[in-house]
Amino acid sequence: MSLPFFVYGTLRPGERNHDLFLRGRTRSEEPGLLAGAVLYHGPGYPYAVETDGGTVSGDIVTALPGSYDALLVALDRLEDCVPGDPRSLYDRVAREVTAGDGRTVRAWVYVAGPAVAARLRTHGRRVEGGDWRARG
Question: Which residue intervals define the domain Gamma-glutamylcyclotransferase AIG2-like in the entry (predicted)?
């Protein structure tokens, strides 16, 4: 299933991994919101953790035709995501996100894997407001 990606941290336009992984591979990038998640500080990058409340700010990124498969592999590798492996730092999940114009878009989101999410809920430091760019 070829879905856009919802990015909320170092892959956002202007952040360090955007140029390395997304520049020249995207058809569109637009602001978006992910409801039902909160953002935590990681070692240099954030983790979205699913919960009943909260909102995470990010961007909806649509790959160029012909770039999708390679981009999916590259982002899974970057996010240390091995589908089905509980030791992965992130899980790639399909979620509904809201675009800036109010449309609902189904997109891939990298959320904290189960072990990481449990640790963050207990000992993590939240990014207030859910926006990595506004972190203090």
Answer: 5-133
